[in-house]
Design brief:
The protein is of the alpha/beta class. The chain contains 16 helices and seven strands. It is globular, with a radius of gyration of 21 Å.
C-alpha cells in the first residue's frame, strides 16, 4: 500500500543563523559571546589589587570590554551576509585554530576594534568612582563570566538556565551579599530572569548608577555650562525602573539637563537589540533616536548602557555633534578628575 506523503509526519529542520549559533557556542564554552579569555576581560583591573571576596561584588560581565569586538563583527556582517559561503568559511576556521584557543571571528574583529581601549577604561573608571565615594568591593577577575543575556534574548532558554548556574557559582565564591552591575542588561538577567528559570539566589542586585545615587550627597558640584540630555536605556528604565536616579545625580552635581520627547519608561530604543539579525535596521533606529536627542538642544548625550553608547555613537559617525558619553565616563571626570 502506497503511503500518501501528506500522511507522513512533517520533518522540518529549524536552523538558527550561523552568527547566533556562533554566539551561543562561545558563551557556553568560553563564558562570553566572542571567546575572549578571562585575562582579556579582566585586563582593566590591573594595578587596582581588588580582592576576590567581600560583601560587595563589582560585576562587569565583560560587556563593555566585548563591545568593540561585537561591533566589528556586526560591521563584518553588513558587508558579508551571515548565510554566505564566505562567512561560513570564516566560522569553519574554528575547527583549524580551536586548539590554539584563538577564535577566527575574534581575529577579524580585533583588526577593526579601534574603540577597545575606551571601552576597557569604562570599567576602570567605574571602579575608581565607587572607590572615591567610599565603597569597598571585590572582583572575580579572570573567573568572571558573562551573564548569559544573549542566550535568553535569542531563545536558547535551556542553555540559559544551565549556564546561569555557573555564573551563580562564581558569585557564591565571592562571598558577596550585593552585586553591582555596570550594565543594566546584566542587572536585569541576575535580578529578574534567573529566578524565572529556577535560578534562585539571595543576592541583592544594584546598578552602578544606583550606588552613585545613594552617595549623591558626597558628589562635587560641577561648574559647567554644558547642557546634557539623558537617553534612558530600555532595560534600565522599563525593566528595572531606574529613571529618577540619574536625574537626581545630575541635579546634585548642579548639572543642567534637558529631556527628550520620549523619556523614562517611554524612551525610544537605541536599536542595539537588532544588531545581530538586522544591522541596517538597527542603524536606522539609532539615527532616529539621535535626531530626537538633538532636538533638545543639549551639547552632550548621556547613557547608562554599553549597547546604547555603542549604537548611538555609531549613528553619529558622520556628524559627531552633540557629543556622547557613558554616565560612568561623565562621573569619572567630575568625581575623580
Amino acid at each position: 500500500m502506497a503511503i500518501n506523503p501528506v500522511d507522513e509526519p512533517s520533518k522540518v529542520e529549524h536552523k538558527m543563523p550561523p552568527v547566533l549559533e556562533l554566539i551561543r557556542g562561545n558563551i557556553l564554552k568560553y563564558g562570553n559571546p566572542l571567546a575572549l579569555t578571562g585575562k582579556e576581560i579582566a585586563a582593566w583591573a590591573q594595578g587596582l589589587n581588588l580582592p576576590k571576596q567581600g560583601d560587595l561584588l563589582f560585576y562587569t560581565g565583560g560587556e563593555y570590554q566585548l563591545l568593540p569586538y561585537i561591533d566589528s563583527l556586526v560591521k563584518t556582517m553588513t558587508v558579508m551576509k551571515p548565510n554566505s559561503a564566505t562567512f561560513s568559511l570564516l566560522l569553519g576556521l574554528r575547527n583549524v585554530v580551536e586548539k590554539t584557543g584563538i577564535a577566527p571571528e575574534k581575529i577579524y574583529a580585533s583588526v577593526l576594534a579601534s574603540e577597545k581601549e575606551r571601552f576597557n577604561q569604562v570599567a576602570f573608571k567605574a571602579a575608581r568612582v565607587l572607590q572615591t565615594l567610599g565603597y569597598e568591593f571585590c572582583y572575580s577577575g579572570e573567573d568572571e563570566l558573562y551573564s548569559g543575556a544573549l542566550l535568553y534574548e535569542l531563545g536558547y532558554w535551556e542553555d540559559f538556565a544551565q549556564y546561569g548556574q555557573k555564573v551563580l557559582q562564581v558569585f557564591e565564591a565571592s562571598k558577596a551579599k550585593t552585586i553591582v552591575c555596570l550594565s543594566p542588561h546584566a542587572a536585569e538577567v541576575i535580578k529578574l530572569l534567573y529566578p524565572q528559570v529556577g535560578l534562585k539566589h539571595d543576592f541583592e542586585v544594584k546598578t552602578f548608577i544606583e550606588l552613585v545615587w545613594e552617595k549623591r550627597a558626597q558628589l562635587p558640584r560641577l561648574s559647567t555650562e554644558q547642557t546634557v540630555v539623558i537617553h534612558d536605556s530600555c532595560r534600565l528604565a522599563r525593566d528595572l525602573g531606574v529613571t529618577e536616579e540619574p536625574r537626581e545625580v545630575l541635579s546634585a552635581m548642579g548639572v543642567d539637563f534637558n529631556e527628550p520627547q520620549r523619556n523614562r519608561a517611554w524612551t525610544t530604543c537605541c536599536g542595539g537589540p537588532n544588531k545581530f539579525m538586522f544591522p541596517e535596521l538597527s542603524h536606522t533606529i539609532a539615527e532616529r533616536r539621535i535626531e530626537e536627542l538633538k532636538c533638545t538642544g543639549a551639547q552632550l548625550i548621556l547613557t547608562s548602557c554599553p549597547y546604547c553608547l555603542s549604537s548611538l555613537k555609531q549613528a553619529m559617525a558622520k556628524n559627531p555633534e552633540p557629543g556622547i558619553a557613558d554616565f560612568i565616563e561623565f562621573l569619572y571626570e567630575g568625581v575623580v578628575g
